Every structure is written in C-alpha cells, then in structure tokens.
C-alpha cells in the first residue's frame, strides 16, 4: 500500500516536472517521456530505499506499483 501511494505521488510529480522541463527545452516527445519516466521513478524509488530495502528490491517494487502512465494520453 505504501509503495503504491509513493508511486502515485512520485510519478505524478515527476512526470509533470519531466514534461514541463522537456517541453521548455524543446525536446522530442520520446526524450520528454524518458525524462518524465526518470523523474517519476526516481521520486518513487527514493522513499522505498529510505525504508531500508536494497536498490534491486526498490526498483522491482516501483516497477510493479507504477503504471506506465506517460505512455497513455500525455502530450
């Protein structure tokens, strides 16, 4: 439950900032989406790591808890 909450929060904030920065810099759609993913998953993984899980487990949880929302309807 906590991982899902962190994912929803982290992904939402990260994806918005990724899209804002990528758009402001005039990047292509693919590069902007990649940046949004990077920011979103970074903000998702950070609190999971702080809970004491190793990086591999944190990445697996973030990927399992987080949908690929930047691929659907973001423009």
Structure report:
This protein has 75 residues and is an all-alpha fold. It has one domain. It has 3 helices and no strands. α1 (2-24) packs antiparallel against α2. The longest helix has 23 residues, at 2-24. The N and C termini lie far apart (29 Å). Mean pLDDT is 77; it is low at 68-75.
Provide a concise account of the structure shown:
By secondary structure, this protein is mainly α. The protein is 75% helix and 0% strand. It has three helices and no strands.
- Helix proportion: over 70%
What string, H for helix and E for strand, traces the elements in order? HHH
Number of strands: 0
Distance between the termini: 29 Å
How many domains would you count in the coordinates?
1
Q: Sheet bearing the most strands, described?
A: none
> What count of helical segments does DSSP give?
3
How much is the average pLDDT? 77
Shape descriptor reads elongated
What proportion strand?
under 5%
Global Rg: 12 Å
User: Helices and strands: which structural class?
Assistant: mainly alpha
State the low-pLDDT regions, or none. Answer: 68-75
Give the topology, please.
Layout: H1 2-24, H2 29-50, H3 55-65
Helix pairs in contact: 1-2, 2-3
Question: Descriptors for this entry?
Answer:
mainly alpha; 75% helix; 75 residues; disordered C terminus; 3 helices
